[in-house]
Amino acid sequence: MTAFFKLLMTALGVVLMAVGVVITPLPGPFGVPIILLGLIILLRSSMWVKRLFVKLVHAHPKLLGPLRAMLRPGAKVVAMLWLQALRLERRVLPKERRFLYRFRHDLKAILRNRRPRPKLAATLAHKPRKLQSY
């Protein structure tokens, strides 16, 4: 990468993070993805930001560990965000006011009832698969 391109990407990352911080108080979760995108661009373009990020992760693993896990290639971002939302809810709300766990189970029940049930004849006619040997 040329020096100009690195400087341009660093500036873009800083601008995206600043925009994300500014729009975070607005309704909706729009600030966090923009901040993450800016952080990803900064981490890809600047070595000193990588070093600082790694130092911060080692200093505060519980706080920044999930963020580092989300930035890895092939990360299951939705599952990690769901777990973090459940953890945050557990820390902030009393047990009788928590709603995410109930929402998930209600949604699963609704989706389960919408699926067409397999007919009995179709399940009985199912042939077992042949085991493959390696």
Short description:
The radius of gyration is 22 Å and the shape is extended.
Indicate the structural class.
mainly alpha
| Count of alpha/pi helices | 7
Beta-strand content estimate: under 5%
Main sheet characteristics: none
What is the average of the pLDDT values? 80
Helix content: over 70%
For the secondary structure, the number of strands is 0
Computed Rg:
22 Å
- Low-confidence segments, given as residue ranges, are none
The N- to C-terminal Cα distance equals 45 Å
What general form does the structure show? Answer: extended
Pattern of helices and strands: HHHHHHH
Please provide a written account of the structure.
The chain is built from seven helices and no strands. With 134 residues, the chain is mainly α. The protein starts with a helix and ends in a 10-residue tail after the last helix.
Protein traits:
72% helix; 7 helices; extended; 134 residues; mainly alpha
List the helices and strands and how they pair.
Blueprint: H1 3-23, H2 31-45, H3 47-59, H4 61-71, H5 77-92, H6 100-114, H7 120-124
